[in-house]
Each structure stands twice: as structure tokens, then as C-alpha cells.
Amino acid sequence: MKPGHSVGHCALVGAGPGDPDLLTVKALRTMRRATVLLVDDLVSDAVLAAALRGRRQPPRVVHVGKRGGCKSTPQAFIEKLMISQSLAGEQVVRLKGGDPFVFGRGGEEAAALRAHGITVEVVHGITAGLAAAGALGVPWTHRDHAHGVMLVTGHAREGAAPPDWAVLGAAAAQGLTLVVYMGIARLAELQQGLLAALPASTPAAVVQHVGGADERQLVTTLAHLVADVQSGGFGSPAILVIGDVLRARAALAAERQAA
User: For a Cys staple, 243 with which of 102, 125, 177, 238, CB 3.0–4.6 Å?
Assistant: First the structure.
């Protein structure tokens, strides 16, 4: 294939945290012109219904399950399907929960598509980590509590070294909010490493099924995180938010109570 020569088109679309009201206008427009929709497990039924609403000729919907810690469709198969359908002239949309470029393998898929001369369009969505913070009533950054944020995955690629939680904890201790995707399966390891650098009293929160009707929240401390998650029956998919920015939540609650 000659460089720059495009023979197909594929859009990587972020479906956000699950609430169709949080879809961007561009995401809806892109989904509604698709002839093939390749849909992740974490995309809600409500979002899919919004993509199909008003269509005279519905697209072919292919569910390509992709969920951390669970049996998933092989990534190589998904990429092969995206490429073959795009080269066949279909308007392909790869619909992903959250944002395609935040732990969504969007970079891998874009590279595979471009290697075959396929034009790639990326339509961003609200990532689950930001939606989780919003659900808790706190920002990622706050002038009084956090001057930055780190987004980390707790699910390392097979054969790769896991995150060094002690190092990440030391960075968080400098005033950064730590947002962890896919961290429940290795929560004890995460807790132990972070406690090497952060006080046991550091606020920690879990938001399970972010943005869904079955969303659940837990706010605790780093010292009690594992025990409280286990006793509360929390599991994947979930987002962890760790850091002093959660203190803003208590301040907000106090202001509401005073009002």
C-alpha cells in the first residue's frame, strides 16, 4: 500500500460511562451513519439504543466482548474484523466504553488500521475515571488538594511488569490524585505498595459500574480499602480514586448540610 493512500474508513468512538445523555453530538452522528458497529461489553444498552434510534436501515451490530479480567474476544481478531470490514467499504464504528485513547487499546487499533491504508477517525468520550470522580462529587484536581492527576491501569499486559505502586504512591504524595482502572483484581498488592509511601489515613474511593443504574460507591481510607471492598462485595468493572482531593467531598457535604 502506498503511503497516504486510503482505501477505507473506521471510527473509534467513545461511548462514555454509560449514560446516553453524556454522548457527544459527534459520537451520535458518527454512530448513526455506521453500517457496521463493533461494540464492547462495557457499552450500555442505552447507548446502543441511542445509536440505533431513527435508523431506517439498522447497522450490523457485532458484540466483541472486551472487559478486563474476564474472557474476552482476542484483540487480533477484533483488529482483523475492523480491517476487513473497512476495506470492504463498510462505514465501521468501533464503539468503546469511556474514551478510545484511555486504556481502550485505541492506539493499537489505530496503528493496525493505518498500516492497511485505512483512515482513522477518533471521537472522544468521557472516560470512566473522570465520570467516577464526578459521581463522587469531586474533581481530579483542586487548588487546595491536588495539582495534578495520574491515570494508571492495574491490569498489566501479559508478561509485563506490574505497576510499581510504591513509586506511584510517592508521586501521589506530592499532591497528585491517583485514578486506577482495572485495579480490583490486584487490590491487596496495590494497597500494600501505596502504603509504603502514603499515610494509612489517605482517602480512597471505589465506584463500581460507573454511570449505570447499578452504580455503587465506597469511600474509605487506604488502610481499610481491601477489607471494605471485600465486605461490601465490590468487584469489576470499577474505578479507584485515591488522594486528598476526596477531602473536598467531605467539605462539600458539610456545606450542603449547613445550607
Answer: 177
**CB contact set of 63 (below 8 Å; sequence gap of 6+):** 39, 41
| Residue ending a domain, choose from 75, 98, 123 | 123
Q: Assess if residue 89 is contained within a domain.
A: yes
- Contacts of 152 by beta carbon, 8 Å cutoff, 6+ apart: 163, 168, 178, 179, 180, 181, 183
Q: Which three-class secondary structure state does DSSP give residue 226?
A: helix
Please tell me whether residue 28 adopts helix, strand or coil conformation.
helix
Q: Is the dihedral of CA 20, 25, 27, 28 positive or negative?
A: positive
| Catalytically annotated residue among 19, 31, 99, 182 | 182
Q: Give the span between the Cα atoms of 9 and 6, in whole angstroms.
A: 8
Instruction: Give the domain range for residue 76.
Output: 8-123
Say what the pTM is: 0.89
Q: Among 19, 31, 66, 244, which one carries the catalytic annotation?
A: 66
Q: What is the pLDDT of residues 22-70, one digit of tens each?
A: 999 999 999 999 999 999 988 999 999 999 998 888 999 999 976 555 5
Instruction: Output the nine-digit C-alpha cell for 27.
Output: 459520537
